[in-house]
Amino acid sequence: MNYIWPMSIIMRALTSDDEAEIKTCLEQLKVRALCCCPGSL
Amino acid sequence: MVICSDALPLLLRSFGGQVLMDDANIPSPLSLPYLGFVNKTDSVYAIRCVYAICCVSTVSFGSLDRPPTVTRISHHLLAACSYQATRALVLSEAGNPYFFRGTAGEGIGGPHVGALRLHCETHCVFHCCNTRRFRFTLRTRLFLLCLVSFLCCLLTWLASWSLRQA
């Protein structure tokens, strides 16, 4: 419980037309990628 | 649990009983436009969405022995659903028990605890989104997702069966 899955953030961005929302999702994914595997970005 | 008549339930029983929630899995109510069942702007679900619901609830809950029967009541219920209302519901803490918000971000989790369990759908989505080579047609994507989900269910069942034998 209390774990957010990145796939849901990806799906949220893919199913949105709101640019601000998509940007927020991408920012979150970027932060997460940097946390999980530094050097990947 | 918030009852919202406009939102599409994840699980629907033949007598109209419904479960309003979403987890991060695919297929799911949130991913229906991605899979091609509805338009993002759809206010009313098409009847073909019923098949998506069968797929969603059967696969997500692993109840392959008891697939949900879609009756006339369910058809009426689905006709009143809108994607945007569903989206608003599953992306809110009040509507979806598996929507989490914290300092690091917000998003949907799921009832499947266990961080070390791999979910094959993630790989499918990754490959679908990643390169041009993996730009599948809708039908192939759906088929693969269903196949992978079925295999996961089968493996889980086999594991529990072998445990029972031991």
Question: What report would you give on this structure?
Answer:
The complex is a heterodimer of chains A (41) and B (166). With 41 residues, chain A is an all-alpha fold. Chain A is built from 2 helices and no strands. In chain A, helix 1 runs antiparallel to helix 2 (19-36). The longest helix of chain A is centred in the last third of the chain and has 18 residues, at 19-36. The mean pLDDT of chain A is 83. With 166 residues, chain B is mostly helical. Chain B has helices at residues 32-35, 49-61, 72-79, 83-90, 120-130, 138-165; strands spanning 11-12, 18-19, 99-101, 106-108. Chain B is globular, with a radius of gyration of 16 Å. The chains are: A mainly alpha (41), B mainly alpha (166).
Short synopsis of the structure:
The complex is a heterodimer of chains A (41) and B (166). Chain A is built from 2 helices and no strands. Chain A has 41 residues and is mainly alpha-helical.
How much helicity do the residues of chain B have? 40-55%
Main β-sheet description of chain B: 2 strands, antiparallel
What is the averaged pLDDT score of chain B? 66
Beta-strand percent range of chain B: 5-15%
Write the layout of secondary structure elements.
The complex is a heterodimer of chains A (41) and B (166).
Chain A: H1 6-14, H2 19-36
Helix pairs in contact in A: 1-2
Chain B: E1 11-12, E2 18-19, H1 32-35, H2 49-61, H3 72-79, H4 83-90, E3 99-101, E4 106-108, H5 120-130, H6 138-165
Antiparallel strand pairs in B: 1-2, 3-4
Helix pairs in contact in B: 5-6
